Amino acid sequence: MEETAGQQGAGAESARVPDQGALLGLDFGTKRIGIAISTPEQTIACPLENYTRRGESADAAHLTALVREHRVVGIVVGLPVHMSGEEGEKARQARRFGRWVSRVTGLPVQFWDERFTSSLADDLLRQADLTRKKRKARRDKLAAQIMLQSFLDAGDRQRPPPSFRGLP
């Protein structure tokens, strides 16, 4: 997979996804993956599903089926970086996952800073006055939607999004 310098919040590399066609947004987790999908025009991201991981072969089959069904042309994986912009173990796991996803789907994977997406998803779900169980059922796919929408809204996707440094 050819890699180019891309927006990751910490300066690491990822492949650039095409500018047209549906994109999957993946909120990586070791137990669950939040999944969002963009419109083919890449203007709007919608939550798709929460996927409970079942092992490498089942996960690969599920992701490749989604790619075929939705005619996906690229994948954006959320990169959980620290507030300082530094990458920790979770970010390294997300990068390994992204490389694996690229291998099993044959598609380019671009990483995108996902800071604040889960907390924003939690805030939105609390405002919706949902039960804790219903919030949990929607959290990961909503976080994936927020991350993917941030990616779509960025325009110049090789440039980092606005910095959150110094915010409370």
Query: What is the level-2 CATH architecture name?
Result: 2-Layer Sandwich
Overall residue-averaged pLDDT value: 80
Q: Helical percent range?
A: 25-40%
Uncertain segments = 1-12, 159-168
Task: Enumerate the strands of the largest sheet in spatial order, edge to edge or round the barrel.
Answer: 5-4-3-6-7
Q: Find the CATH topology.
A: Nucleotidyltransferase, domain 5
Q: What would you say this structure looks like, in words?
A:
With about 170 residues, this protein is of the alpha/beta class. The protein has one domain: YqgF/RNase H-like domain (Nucleotidyltransferase, domain 5, 2-Layer Sandwich). It is built from four helices and seven strands, in the order βββββαβαβαα. The strands form two sheets. Strands 5-4-3-6-7 form a five-stranded mixed beta sheet, sandwiched between helices. It has a two-stranded antiparallel sheet with strand order 1-2. A hairpin with a 6-residue loop joins β4 and β5. α3 packs across α4. The N and C termini lie far apart (about 40 Å). The N terminus and C terminus are likely disordered.
